[in-house]
Design a protein that fits this description.
This protein is an alpha/beta fold and 391 residues long. The protein is 47% helix and 12% strand.
Length: 391
């Protein structure tokens, strides 16, 4: 097997990223609420892709549209202009909603089922109106027969005291909902001296994760952008698994010249982490990532040998280039690469760098330094029996 150059490795990673995303079951969320309650702002604040900004939705009834993007594991059923002014209008809307819920269940396809409903009420109303109370009671009766969880989301929660009172009022009704979650989807400037900070979105995602089917939980992790810990936990689990696989590969010591045997585990790991964070990383950027960690000369964590500077980090390895990679070294290399990549993903999420920055020399140096740092921290563990959980 010949050495893989960065572009080849990146191409394989991007192909696997696409496969992993396409392999996710689609998360389907229905969002209800009156005009002006901030549904679009809420949707775009929770999810990675600004799906509610497309303006293009597929009509599924006279008043309900389905928003989705190709090869993206999320669809939103939106009811624009939910008005409860007349009994006939309410009955007709409930009929349309029930039709969607019923069809989604009857198809017996996890990708078509409605997995969760957000019922949005603006906290600025300060009260739970009778028309809304009547509608949501009727709606929940329909949803319950299909075992679809409903979360009441109190949007535009600028005044926390008023919001808490409204939340208590709704909870007294014992509606049989999953939870009442107050949120402020975006920072709100009260005046030049005070800004109300966004809150509640992480709790909303946590509640969703608890109530949706296990088969779509990975899709939620990938498409949501507010709960970083959820992404980190999943990404770290991928690193642990990959380090274990690498250790198994190195259980019979691998000659440095044959270290390309670790490539499949490391490609799958980087692809899995990329899919979890759901960031727009293109092939050119991934090529830069590979170059930063394996170099451009074929000396590689993923290729034939380790770059000379890394020998110092591996006890005993510096004295014999023709030596072998043990299980513990294979696991440490793989774990260090995965943890460094997770670190970069978090920097991008925090706005400290952009994905395109990885194409620059400075960006590559940042990733290389992070990789060396992660590997350096593991040097005391090398040579010991590998316990994947330590990584």
């Amino acid at each position: 097997m010949h050495d893989l150059n960065p572009a080849e490795v990146a191409q394989r990673i991007m192909k696997e990223v696409k496969q992993k995303i396409q392999g996710l079951n689609k998360l389907n969320v229905m969002v209800l609420g009156k005009t002006g309650v901030g549904k679009s702002t809420l949707i775009n604040s929770v999810f990675q892709e600004p799906i509610a900004q497309t303006g293009i939705g597929k009509p599924v009834t006279s008043r309900i549209k389905k928003y989705e993007k190709e090869d993206y594991p999320l669809s939103i059923y939106d009811t624009p202009g939910l008005e409860l002014g007349g009994e006939n209008a309410v009955d007709e809307l409930l009929k349309e909603i029930n039709t969607i819920l019923k069809k989604s269940v009857e198809k017996n396809d996890i990708n078509e089922a409605i997995h969760c409903v957000w019922y949005c009420i603006s906290s600025t109303s300060h009260r739970f109106e009778e028309s809304e109370k009547s509608f949501i009671n009727s709606f929940i009766t329909e949803a319950k027969q299909y075992q679809i969880p409903v979360i009441v989301v109190l949007t535009q929660s600028y005044a926390k005291k008023d919001t808490a009172q409204l939340k208590a009022e709704i909870e007294k009704e014992e509606l049989g909902i999953a939870e009442v979650v107050p949120v402020l989807a975006q920072d709100y400037e009260i005046d030049e001296d005070y800004v109300a900070r966004a809150f509640g979105l992480t709790r909303l995602v946590d509640v969703m994760y608890e109530v949706i089917p296990e088969s779509v939980q990975n899709a939620l992790i990938a498409v949501q952008k507010v709960n970083r810990q959820m992404k980190n936990t999943k990404a770290q689990a991928i690193v642990v698994s990959s380090a274990s696989l690498a250790a198994a590969t190195g259980a019979t010591p691998i000659p440095f010249a044959d270290s390309f045997l670790l490539v499949p585990e490391q490609i799958s790991m980087l692809a899995g982490i990329t899919a979890v964070y759901g960031l727009p990383v293109d092939q050119a950027t991934m090529t830069a990532v590979i170059s930063a960690t394996i170099g451009t000369s074929g000396t590689t964590v993923l290729g034939k040998t380790l770059v000379s500077g890394l020998f110092k980090l591996i006890p005993g390895a510096g004295s014999f280039v023709g030596g072998a990679i043990s299980a513990s070294i294979a696991a440490a290399l793989t774990a260090a690469l995965g943890e460094a990549y997770i670190g970069v993903m978090n920097m991008i999420c925090d706005g400290k760098m952009k994905a395109d920055d990885l194409k620059t020399n400075e960006g590559k140096q940042t990733l290389t330094a992070m990789f060396r740092q992660k590997l350096g921290r593991k040097r005391d563990k090398l040579g010991k029996p590998v316990d994947a959980e330590q990584f």
